[in-house]
Each structure stands twice: as C-alpha cells, then as structure tokens.
From TrEMBL:
<dbReference type="Pfam" id="PF15919">
    <property type="entry name" value="HicB_lk_antitox"/>
</dbReference>
<protein>
    <recommendedName>
        <fullName>HicB-like antitoxin of toxin-antitoxin system domain-containing protein</fullName>
    </recommendedName>
</protein>
<dbReference type="InterPro" id="IPR051404">
    <property type="entry name" value="TA_system_antitoxin"/>
</dbReference>
<dbReference type="InterPro" id="IPR031807">
    <property type="entry name" value="HicB-like"/>
</dbReference>
<dbReference type="InterPro" id="IPR035069">
    <property type="entry name" value="TTHA1013/TTHA0281-like"/>
</dbReference>
<feature type="domain" description="HicB-like antitoxin of toxin-antitoxin system">
    <location>
        <begin position="5"/>
        <end position="50"/>
    </location>
</feature>
Amino acid sequence: MKLKIIVHDAEEGGYWAEVPALPGCASQGETLEEVLANMREAIEGCLSVDAQTSEPGARVMEIAI
C-alpha cells in the first residue's frame, strides 16, 4: 500500500508530516529520515483495528489495496 504524506518544516526545527487520506494521522521528527520512520509507525497505528473492541457479530478482515 502506498499513501501520500505531506511533510512540513516545523517552526522549532525538524519536520512534521500528515496523511491527508487518514485525518488525524501525523507525526514529527528531527530529520527527514526520522519523520518518515515515525510516519510509518503512525500509519500502522492509525490503520490497526483492535478486534476486542469491535461490535458483536462484526468481522475484522484485511483487504489489500
């Protein structure tokens, strides 16, 4: 899966990034490499589903895009 991210220069130095397709999914880092690594982790967290909190009768499934 590929997602586009927008990387911004942070006012205090370093960078912060966001994923337009996943509102609220953002991270930061001191270098571009760090912000990219942090974004991978943030995206995984934003896309993860806790099966224990799903509604009764609901199914947790995976789909490749």
